[in-house]
UniProtKB/TrEMBL annotation:
Organism listed in the record: Enterococcus sulfureus ATCC 49903
InterPro entries assigned to the protein according to its UniProt record, in alphabetical order: GH, GH_1_N_CS, Glyco_hydro_1
GO MF annotation terms: beta-glucosidase activity
Protein name in UniProt: 6-phospho-beta-glucosidase
PANTHER family linked to this entry: 6-PHOSPHO-BETA-GLUCOSIDASE, GLYCOSYL HYDROLASE
Alphabetic keyword roster: Glycosidase, Hydrolase
GO biological process: carbohydrate catabolic process
GO cellular component: cytosol
Keyword Hydrolase: yes
């Protein structure tokens, strides 16, 4: 078995989790810059502050792993691994510090010119997420984020600025990261909802405006360069019924539709699915969607579908009352006794990736890409600066085998960018100790360390995987 000759092997990061330099060269504060690290003894979730107090608290994104000043070193390491693509994001507030300016910040644009040039020097194709949990804080505080339709215009201006500036350097784009988290309790801030309590109608209005912004970006990008490939990105939480009881199966279908399929249906098919229309009707959710909006969604469908896959979970009809719940990426479920779990309680399920790829390709029949997949774990740095992370190698090996099988099933899978190609701060908790990378960064949960980079054992393993196009595992 082998992968297509043009398969895009690489890795993924996000600007707010790796760049640092949060107030350098004209950059403004994003919502991530207002989030300090979570407590291991509490929920683990990061604490969001309306006012930044750096004298009292540590804000991980302010320095992160300082990719801003280390990008040449880091990209050289990605090139040593043989990357064909590097998935990264642009920090919105590095381009428009408040988000609503008429003119972009040239220093921010120049930084990404330099990053893309460094990638292209090594033959690495940039894959750029336009908005990856980096909404300008000002847009949330002043406008209530995407609840205000003016923010659609600001996003379109931002996206168009990127498309125009980098049209000869970047071919692959993603409009929003994990767009389906926009109505979950821990995910409202990504759409700028943090000033007060919001009704469910307001939450779906904000998400609807995000859909419109994405569609406008797709249309604008294709007008600027018809060769652009512009995709969506969702967090896919694969779900199984806990038992074969019909009530568990039905509950699984309902939750799968709402969390996993809804946003993909809008962005790929260009229309709201019937089950969400009924959900809105049943729950008295009545937000504005015009005929013009419907036409825009139909015209602004994406070229390909990308997703994150870390785990699967089980669903039961009585899920709210159960004690055997599992952890996960902003979403829980019921524990699956047939699966092992990570150090953070995420259930490891390689076969679930094959199942998911087939499920998605059957539904959408557009090219697919796995743009996040990985194992957060405690890594031990040896005295000689090596890291023996065989557990990570085994995780990736098993998932790549299942991707091979999905290709043999007939799925059109075009790329794989594991999270994260280098250690970075956790989006959910702000920790550094939750390490995903092939490259170790000397930084701890309190922001101490030299920031030195050390390749792990998995670094050299993944290099062989890419060299052999997936045949040497």
């Amino acid at each position: 078995m082998s992968f297509p000759t043009n398969f895009l092997w690489g890795g993924a990061t996000a600007a707010n989790q790796c760049e640092g330099a949060w107030d350098v060269d004209g950059k403004g504060p994003s919502i991530s810059d207002h989030s300090r690290a979570g407590s291991r003894t509490a929920s683990g979730r990061r604490v969001f502050d309306l006012e930044i107090d750096t004298d009292q608290y540590y804000y991980p994104s302010h320095t992160a792993i300082d990719f801003y000043h280390h990008y040449k070193e880091d990209i050289a390491l990605f090139a040593e691994m043989g990357y064909k693509t590097y998935r990264m994001s642009v920090n919105w507030t590095r381009i428009f510090p408040n988000g609503d300016e008429d003119t972009p910040n040239e220093a921010g644009l120049k930084f990404y010119d330099d990053v893309f040039d460094e990638c292209l020097k090594y033959g690495i194709e940039p894959l750029v997420t336009i908005s990856h949990f980096e909404l300008p804080f000002h847009l949330g505080k002043t406008y209530d984020g995407f609840l205000d339709k003016r923010v659609i215009d600001f996003y379109e201006r931002y996206a168009t600025t990127l498309f125009t500036r980098y049209q000869h350097k970047v071919k692959y784009w993603l409009t929003f990261n994990e767009i389906n988290f926009g109505t979950l309790p821990h995910g409202l801030r990504i759409n700028g909802l943090f000033n007060r309590e919001y009704t469910e109608t307001e939450q779906y209005q904000a998400l609807h405006n995000v859909f419109l912004a994405s569609a406008r970006a797709v249309i604008a990008g294709h007008n600027i360069n018809p060769d652009f490939k512009i995709g969506c990105m969702l967090a896919y939480i694969t779900m199984y019924p806990k038992t074969c009881k019909p009530a568990d199966v039905l509950k699984t279908q309902q939750m799968n539709d709402k969390l996993n399929f809804f946003c993909g249906d809008v962005q790929v098919k260009g229309k709201y699915p019937y089950y969400m229309k009924q959900y809105f009707k049943d729950h008295g959710i009545d937000f504005e969607i015009t005929e013009e909006d419907k036409a825009l969604l139909k015209a602004g469908t994406v070229d390909y579908y990308t997703f994150s896959y870390y785990m699967s979970t089980c669903i039961a009809a009585d899920i709210d009352n159960r004690e055997d719940k599992s952890g996960g990426n902003l979403f829980g479920g019921v524990a699956n006794e047939y699966l092992e779990t990570s150090d953070w309680g995420w259930q490891i399920d390689p076969i679930g990736l094959r199942f998911t790829l087939n499920q998605l390709y059957s539904r959408y029949e557009v090219p697919l890409m796995v743009v996040e997949n990985g194992l957060g774990a405690f890594d031990e740095l040896n005295d000689d600066h090596t890291i023996d992370d065989d557990y990570r190698i085994d995780y990736f090996r098993q998932h790549i085998i299942e991707m091979q099988k999905a290709l043999d099933d007939g799925v059109e899978l075009i790329g794989y960018t594991p999270w994260g190609c280098i250690d970075l701060i956790s989006a959910g908790t702000g920790e550094m100790s939750k390490r995903y990378g092939f490259i170790y960064v000397d930084r701890d949960d309190e922001g101490n360390g030299t920031l030195a980079r050390y390749p792990k054992k998995s670094f050299y393993w993944y290099k062989k995987v890419i060299e052999s196009n997936g045949t040497e595992l």
